[in-house]
Amino acid sequence: MAGEIQNPIIRVRDITVQFGTTRVLDGLNLDVKRGEILGFVGPSGAGKSVLTRTIIGLVPKVAGSIEVFGVDLDSSSTAQRRNVERRWGVLFQQGALFSSLTVRQNIQFPMREYLRVSQRLMDEITMAKLAMVGLKPEVAERFPSELSGGMIKRVALARALSLDPDLVFLDEPTSGLDPIGAGDFDELVRTLQRTLGLTVFMVTHDLDSLYTACDRIAVLGNGKIIAAGSIADMQASQHPWLRQYFHGKRARAVMT
Amino acid sequence: MNSDPKLERIAKGNALALCATGTWTASFAPVLERIVADAEKLAGSPQSIFIDVSEVAKLDTFGAWLIERLRRSLTKGPVEAQIAGLSANYSSLVDEVRRVRAGAVVDSSPITIAGMLEQIGRTVAGVGGTVAGLVDMLGAVLAAWFRVLIHPRSFRLTSTVHHMEQVCWRAVPIIVLITFLIGCIIAQQGIFHFRRFGADIFVVDMLGVLVLREIGVLLVAIMVAGRSGSAYTAELGSMKMREEIDALRTMGFDPIEVLVLPRMMALVLALPILAFLGAMAALYGGGLVAWLYGGVEPEAFLLRLRDAISIDHFIVGIVKAPVMAAVIGIVACVEGLAVQGSAESLGQHTTASVVKGIFFVIVMDGVFAIFFASIGM
User: Fold this and answer.
1) Which residues of chain A have pLDDT under 50?
2) pTM for this one?
3) Complex-level ipTM
4) What is the C-alpha to C-alpha distance for residues B7 and B63, in angstroms, rounded to an integer?
């Protein structure tokens, strides 16, 4: 346990991912430190989601190694892997809620599998999670097809947080939310990170999120991390894409 | 770092202090729930109650909620239980769970006999709606077809050809194989039973009439309903789920014309072809078995077949094919467009598509049998 604190919570080394002949990630290295909110940016199609899915284990890699919570995911046993999966939560870009279950059943699904607790506690925790992500209790009995896009994101976050994980992956969490909702969402992520000691790996395009929520930013380009550091480092960078990204019209609007 | 959670009770005069220690997290949730349930039963009426959480090593939503639940149940009348020793880190979490209203969950209504009867009643009443839906779709398809006749350029040839490939060309191997085997089985059974009367040769009559009039087209229609009807429903259903059909509508396209008509055309053209191939394969299989198993020489088989069947038998069979195709196509498209937002709904409608498709095919076959009998064919 003591070693885990010093070591990064996610440690990605020389990852290469290929689809056919297109190399999406090419010898990528990345560390995510315990307790930080890492914002992950890059041009569309650069492979941000691919990296996320590779770390979670949904996309096979050609080469490299991934350690999460100090466990090498390639050489781990099923039990070890299960334990790691229990400690992370994933928010997919489209929500990926189970369409035939209600919101309440969606949020309780991981609890039912991993914890032996009473229905009453599960219901109460579900209500707590719904309140945390800013939804009304009435939403609990609705089906995903009856929710708006923003509500789907919130429910998906509540499901990702349902076991109080140590690490959450958020794939564009604020896309499709109105600016106020997105601001609340950033605030929420910050609060959860403070209270639960959460580590957050956030793929985002939202400059506001980068400024207000993220501790550190990593930039993906050409299959590698081209820069990593604080928002000030990003602004000082001379890399052409970064200059455009952080000094463009929209960035100036956010900064003022 | 992780240690078992505990809740110690320290009484100080009129005050009661509950001291929480250890790890109050999701992993210990079952234990925590028991501890809190025990503590809730605390008797006595102390003047003030404190829940001291300063010794808690780790707290998450589960732990915070259970402490809050304990606080609420110990708060009776004028005595308000307090949470003490909250570190700055955890206070916002506790504030968060404090806003939760408990018992807001409404349980879904239990299953009752009345409820089941109601379900049956609704299903029966729904039959009328189903038929109306089919007639509606038939009308819409015919209207789209007439529009295409007037403006032939709006016909989607590429799409039709693509669906022809899917439902006709790719179906040939499996249809031919199955009908071939069925022909073999009919011939074998016929010979086996007719032999006792010395009437082996009549198996050719039976095979010819049965295959051309009934089995060929009926079997092929059932297979097509299972193979292509389900595919149509799943395709249209998932397009409906992803709002693709709404997108078509907003661009000014008629989904019936763009999606349904090409599929219907492909099916109506494909089924007669498949029924013909199926009938030929069944006759071939039957002839093969008659020769190898029944000792009927191929020449004798063909001569007998020529006498036994007329073109009428063939026409009776093949005329049914396009009608059955239309029925299958309409059922499949109606079900596909009725899919709601969930994966479960897609599964239900695909099942319904195949079941209803096969049912209507058999009903149509019966109607045709009555019709042909009354006109003497």
Assistant:
1) 1-5
2) 0.73
3) 0.74
4) 12
